[in-house]
Each structure stands twice: as structure tokens, then as C-alpha cells.
Write a structure and sequence with these properties.
The structure is a single chain. The protein contains one helix and eleven strands, in the order E-E-E-E-E-E-E-E-E-E-E-H. The protein is mainly β and 133 residues long. It is globular and about 40 Å long.
Length: 133
């Protein structure tokens, strides 16, 4: 959904429907609005970000807990510093338009598919990111 946002997959759990990822976004990036079917924990490693719909700002060391059903539009602040977050997502991410209609669905399975496609394109030997350990 963005050529500027990078995602590193650490784990995609088919049993719990969970993904653990690192996200890296340039300052000023606005991600698409989305809704969660499960809970999300976001730990900010670097930079500052917020949701367009809220006044608070998350900075380095912040932990944001998102409840299932929450809907928001993440935005990296334009302070010149990229944003890096560690994300633990349970369930699906439902990307929605202004009328709240679902445009795309991301899950542990689409994460595995995206990771394998990257490995193929980069001629990198994939590891099993669904395995225990």
C-alpha cells in the first residue's frame, strides 16, 4: 500500500492468526485508514507518530495498545526522523475507504505470501516464519 514503508516479518502464526513485524516509514508518511479484528500492540523504537483521529503522539519507548474493532489512520510526524515500530497484530487488518467499505485484507497468510514473494524476487533463501522457535 506504500512503496516507502518497509516491513520486516519476524513471525506469522497460523494458529493464533498473529504477525510480529518491524515497520519503517519516512517522516510525514500517512498510512491507509484501517480497522483491526483483533488486538494490536505497537512499540515505538524511533521517531514520532500519531493517529489522524487522535491528539496524542507516540515517541520512542511508547507502547500503544489497540483494541479489536478500533479504526484509525497512522501518520509519521514530519519532524525529519523516520519512524520504526515493532508491531504485534492478532487477527486481520481491514483497509477501508471513507465509507468504511473494505478495500483490502491483510493477515498472517498475506504476510507469508508477501515475504515469500520478496525472497523469490531478491533471490534470497526464505526461512519458515511460521515455525515455532
Amino acid at each position: 500500500y506504500s512503496n516507502e514503508v518497509l516491513i520486516k516479518y519476524f513471525k506469522c502464526d497460523p494458529i493464533r492468526g498473529e504477525t510480529i513485524t518491524l515497520h519503517k516509514a519516512p517522516a510525514g508518511t500517512v498510512m491507509p485508514r484501517h480497522r483491526h479484528t483483533g488486538t494490536v500492540i505497537v512499540y515505538t523504537v524511533k521517531g514520532s507518530w500519531k493517529y489522524v483521529e487522535h491528539d496524542w503522539i507516540a515517541g520512542p519507548g511508547s507502547i500503544v495498545f489497540e483494541t479489536a474493532g478500533s479504526s484509525h489512520t497512522p501518520q509519521a510526524l514530519q519532524n525529519g526522523e523516520e519512524v520504526i515500530t515493532l508491531n504485534i497484530v492478532v487477527g486481520d487488518l481491514l483497509f477501508v475507504n471513507e465509507q468504511d467499505q473494505i478495500l483490502a485484507i491483510e493477515s498472517w497468510k498475506s504476510g507469508v505470501d508477501r515475504y515469500l514473494a520478496f525472497c523469490t524476487a531478491a533471490a534470497v533463501e526464505p526461512v519458515d516464519i511460521t515455525a515455532f522457535g
